[in-house]
Automatic annotation (TrEMBL):
<protein>
    <submittedName>
        <fullName>NAD(P)H-binding protein</fullName>
    </submittedName>
</protein>
<feature type="domain" description="NAD(P)-binding">
    <location>
        <begin position="4"/>
        <end position="114"/>
    </location>
</feature>
<dbReference type="InterPro" id="IPR051604">
    <property type="entry name" value="Ergot_Alk_Oxidoreductase"/>
</dbReference>
<dbReference type="InterPro" id="IPR036291">
    <property type="entry name" value="NAD(P)-bd_dom_sf"/>
</dbReference>
<dbReference type="Pfam" id="PF13460">
    <property type="entry name" value="NAD_binding_10"/>
</dbReference>
<dbReference type="InterPro" id="IPR016040">
    <property type="entry name" value="NAD(P)-bd_dom"/>
</dbReference>
Length: 222
């Protein structure tokens, strides 16, 4: 069984819902649970990291054979992050890792279709960690347009997110999380995708080549 849902809405209610599903799986004698979590998940962490931290802890002691996938940010977020040729964030100049969600799916498929192993946590990363200046440059090159990364202090990024309709406290937590992940903690890469699927994770260039059409019309019209 795979457990993957959104981490939006009430974090407490989401954790309860995940725990209930895991308890049902234990009672039903499910052969294994593969859960999609997030890198750095720990109880009390901001946004989804805290919810996943609680759920991961529950799964580890559930008695069901388990694997926990802890991916970095999804490349699939990028189309919605870029508006009008600008990519706003609070990551600063350091490198951050992004992974193509298709690689996470392939890891899950490999674990779910292979023999049930001893379980464990798998930190899943893309093959390279890049600064947001570089990411914006690669997006621009793929689209044939200028895309610029605009780094904002956390309070200004919070206000930017609020203007886009992100409610508090999520807007503030999201901006603060950007600053946290931009401190280098998400810069290292792992070999987990290749170890588990037999092939290396997709680079940003492959994601962009396959997803040019996912970027908003506003960007293409510049
Ligand atoms: N995005 C990232 O960068 C990132 C990075 C690391 C980890 N993660 C984790 O990966 C997971 C997916 O993230 P995401 O960004 O793809 O989330 P998302 O865009 O919010 O998508 C979540 C998906 O889960 C479905 N869903 C939500 N609640 C559900 C429920 N109770 N039962 C069945 N389906 C439900 C949603 O269906 P509807 O569309 O029908 O609502 C949607 O298809 C989350 O747990 C997140 O914490 C995300």
């Amino acid at each position: 069984m795979i457990v993957i849902t959104g981490a939006t809405g009430s974090i407490g209610r989401a954790a309860d819902a995940h725990r209930a599903v895991i308890d049902l799986a234990a009672r039903a004698g499910v052969a294994q649970v593969v859960a999609v979590s997030v890198r750095g998940a720990t109880p009390g962490a901001k946004l989804g990291g805290g919810m996943h931290g609680e759920v991961d802890a529950h799964l580890r002691k559930s008695g069901v054979p388990w694997s926990i996938l802890q991916p970095t940010r999804f490349m699939q977020n990028l189309p919605r992050d870029v508006q009008d040729g600008r990519f706003y964030g609070s990551y600063g100049p350091k490198e951050v890792n992004y992974i193509d969600a298709r690689d996470i799916a392939e890891v899950a498929a490999a674990l779910l279709t292979g023999p049930v192993g001893p379980g464990g946590d798998h930190v899943l990363t893309g093959p390279e960690s890049l600064s947001h200046d570089r990411i914006a440059g690669e997006i621009g090159a793929a689209l044939g347009r200028t895309v610029r990364y605009v780094d904002l202090p956390v309070p200004e990024m919070t206000a930017h997110l609020e203007r886009q309709g992100v409610p508090q406290p999520h807007a503030g937590d999201l901006a603060a999380l950007m600053a946290e992940t931009g401190d280098g903690r998400w810069a290292t890469t792992t070999t987990a995708v290749e170890d588990l699927t037999g092939r290396p994770p997709r680079p940003l260039s492959a994601f962009l080549a396959d997803h040019k059409d996912a970027f908003p019309e506003a960007l293409k019209a510049i």
